[in-house]
Amino acid sequence: MDKALKKEIFFKKSKLRKDIWDKLDKAKTATELAKELNKHRSSVSRVLLDMEKEGLIKCVNPEDKSFRHYLRK
Q1: What is the C-alpha to C-alpha distance for residues 66 and 10, in angstroms, rounded to an integer?
Q2: pTM
């Protein structure tokens, strides 16, 4: 499958995915994103892990157990 099409389908499956992607204009934590989007932190964290698994974002400080910051690739 085409990479662009795969990305498009990935975002269509969840509005929260798209909203998080749009907010990641700079490195942010799940807590910061949750506050900006008025969503539960656990929901945002789960989406961030999905997006990282898909190769769309990266954790810039993976060694930290808390306050992990994510950024678009």
Answers
A1: 27
A2: 0.91
* For the chain, domain boundaries: 3-72
Half-sphere exposure of residue 37: CA atoms within 13 angstroms, side-chain side:
25
Pairing relation of β-strands 70-72 and 57-59? antiparallel
Taking phi over 0 as left and psi of -120 to 50 as alpha, with beta for the rest, 39 belongs to: beta
Evaluate the CA torsion angle 26, 46, 31, 5 in order and state its sign: positive
Average pLDDT by consecutive 10-residue portion of the chain (73 residues)? 89 95 96 98 97 96 93 94
Structure tokens at 71: 């950024």
Q: Quote the tokens at residue 1.
A: 């499958």
Tokens 């990935």 correspond to 10
Identify the CATH number of the domain defined by range 3-72.
Answer: 1.10.10.10
